[in-house]
Amino acid sequence: MQLSGSITALATPFDAARELDLDAWHRLLAMQLERGTQGLVVAGSTGEAAALYDAEYDLLLRSAIEFVAGRVPVLAGTGHSNTAKTVEQTRRAAALGADAALVVTPPYVRPTQAGLVAHYRAIADDGALPVVLYNVPPRTGGDMLPETVAELAGHPRIVAIKEARSEPERMQALLELQDRDFSVLSGDDPTACRAMLAGARGVISVASNVVPAAFRLLCNLALAGKAEQAGAWDARLHGLYAFLGVEPNPTPVKALLTLQGIGHDLRLPLQALSERHRDAATTMLATIRAIEDECRNSLAA
Question: What is the catalytic activity of this protein (predicted)?
Fold first, then answer.
């Protein structure tokens, strides 16, 4: 498996009672597919995986796989702070039909680099699914270093890394490990264009929940080495990137989805977007609708 292009880390829509909203979920999936998204992540951190019950996780993943019907890869978030639980979750995702597992570094427990190697090898050796490493230090409290990734990249069941650190030096160190069997994907929307122009094969994005056509076009241009055109589109998205950071993810992106009639709320301890940012959300919605319309026309041309 070689993952590439625009991959969306999907938000999970809830209804007004904070229950799964499967109608909204299907509309979100349909929008992603219609506008060119090339892969989907179900129940990652943007999908509030930590707030899902096991039965909800299964329903969400199963329904996505049935809806997508093989048109794009479906990745399941399976990472836990405990290795055995991660192996078990990865097996469950495999049984439900996922194409790969997105496995974040164990949150909170802060293992050593040797512990990370042992953790990921145990998951990959179990063989349930191809594994995508995921490094996002601000959320987990630990940083998987490039030399650790180098120890893992040769494993036949470890196929990619989602790197959410933004420094160009970090991305360059990882790109030196990329080959036919191991892909480097950006996990940071504001620097994804730069990463792809440097050689990364794609992005696992939060922003593409609300601008899927724009991210497909951005990826097409960046992966084709069209730096000037890619940079121009990326610059138009900077306001969205800034807005998505005004409160913890996925609060801002879910506010934008709610304004589009997709979902209503988050689960505690996350809360709806603060009142002081709601006018900005309304303004941002108008901006991204205009960008999406232009991008859809460009992609259709």
Answer: L-aspartate 4-semialdehyde + pyruvate = (2S,4S)-4-hydroxy-2,3,4,5-tetrahydrodipicolinate + H2O + H(+)
Among the listed residues 53, 108, 120, 134, the single catalytic one is 134
Q: What is the pLDDT of residues 137-186, one digit of tens each?
A: 999 999 999 999 999 999 999 999 999 999 999 999 999 999 999 999 99
Mean pLDDT across 63-76: 98
Q: Evaluate if residue 220 carries a pLDDT over 90.
A: yes
Q: Distance between CA atoms of 268 and 146, rounded to whole angstroms?
A: 35
Q: In whole angstroms, give the CA distance from residue 171 to residue 167.
A: 7
- The reported pLDDT for the residue numbered 196 is 98
Domains identified in the chain, total number: 1
Considering the candidates 85, 162, 241, 254, report the single residue annotated as catalytic: 162
Query: Is 161 marked as binding a ligand?
Result: no
Residue 162 is a catalytic residue: yes
Beta bridge partners of 202: 5, 185
Strands (E), the chain: 5-9, 39-42, 74-77, 100-104, 131-135, 158-163, 183-186, 202-205
Confidence of residue 265 (pLDDT cuts 50, 70, 90): confident
75 phi and psi, to 5 degrees? -100, 140
46 is in an annotated binding site: yes
Asked if 57 is an active-site residue, the reply is no
Token pair 């609300």: residue: 210
**Which of 106, 153, 109, 111 lies closest to 132, judged by CA?**
153
Give residue 149's domain range.
Answer: 5-300
Contact at 8 Å (CB) between 230 and 242? no
Q: Can you give the CATH number for the domain in which 232 is found?
A: 3.20.20.70
